[in-house]
Amino acid sequence: MCANALTVYFVSHSIRRVIIATVCTLLLLQVAYFGSVLFLVWRARCKRRAVERTGQRRCYHS
User: Fold this and answer.
1) Is 61 left (phi over 0), alpha (psi -120 to 50) or beta?
2) pLDDT, tens digit, 9 for 90 and up, residues 14-58
3) Sequence-separated (6 or more) residues with CB below 8 Å from residue 1
4) Which of 8, 29, 44, 53 is the most buried (most CB within 10 A)?
5) CA-based torsion, 7, 13, 19, 21: positive or negative
6) Rounded Cα distance, 42 and 25, in Å
7) CA distances from residue 26 to 6, 11, 34, 50 in whole angstroms, order as listed
8) What's this model's pTM, rounded to 2 decimal places?
9) Are 21 and 3 in contact (CB under 8 A)?
């Protein structure tokens, strides 16, 4: 984040653009994080359904 803000500032010399770019970057990161969490939940659900269909129970030992 800091590197992005500094780069935008040195290129544009505008605090307003730094704030806009930083907020946009934060929003993009939040959307990517939310999407990855949704993907992991979806993948876990698919695996659970596949195991339930086959009737197999897996036991994991540490």
Assistant:
1) beta
2) 899 999 999 999 999 999 999 999 999 999 999 888 888 887 665
3) 22, 25, 26
4) 8
5) negative
6) 26
7) 15, 19, 12, 36
8) 0.66
9) no
Distance CA 13, CA 9 (A): 5
- In this structure, is the dihedral angle defined by the CA atoms of residues 17, 18, 19 and 23, taken in order, positive or negative? positive
Tokens of 35: 């999407």
Q: Which residues of 24-60 are buried (b: 16+ CB within 10 A; e: fewer)?
A: eeeeeeeeeeeeeeeeeeeeeeeeeeeeeeeeeeeee
Block residue for tokens 């290129």: 11
